[in-house]
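PROTEIN SPECIFICATION:
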Amino acid sequence: MKVGAIICDMDGTAVQYPNGDFSSSWDILTELLSEKEKEEWFSLIKENYGTGNYDKWFKSELKLLKGKKLCDAEKFLFPLPYSPGFKQFFSNSNGLKKAILSGGIDIVARQIAKELNFDYWISESLEIKNGIFTGKGKSPVYFDKSEHLVPISRILKVPLSNTCYIGDTDSDIPCLRQVGFPVAFNPHHGLEDYVKLKKIPSISDFGELKGMLE
């Protein structure tokens, strides 16, 4: 099998923010919040995230951001905290098609695509007007990302059987199941058991990918 495309998770995989359990682009936004708002933010995650109440969580988190300035958020979001070897690998990806598929925020996904010339990205969208978060947004990805694999495969013009998917938690399992070459990055939050069961290759540095693909 020859791999022609790589579809990569973002939060905890492509980038690792030093805030929260998931190294998430979402959670680094709590730096914009008051202590009371931060408590509410993480309480909403415990109550709703991964329980089927994703839409409620999404809308509630956005309301907490309403009125905050994008320029203040950028102080914490940038420069991008790439995972070990990620920037080096994708700067020289030898003709591979590459895409980001993430439940993280579009501000970060767009910047990764810009800096490393990704062919496609899809993530959660935060509405910003005149540099201010409006408290609204769109959530095309939700918790199950796998429904986007076939459309992305068509865009990249590479079949899933010749595609590598890389993720770090149990939310990536549906995607890992559907591709020809699944890879786990520092697996945690339930993914480590699946990796052992299915004997999926695991990496801690994207520099390890080159040898695997060859």
Q: What stands out?
A: The beta strands are 5-8, 97-105, 120-129, 132-138, 163-167, 181-185, 202-203. The two ends are 10 Å apart (CA to CA). The chain has a mean pLDDT of 93. The longest strand covers residues 120-129.
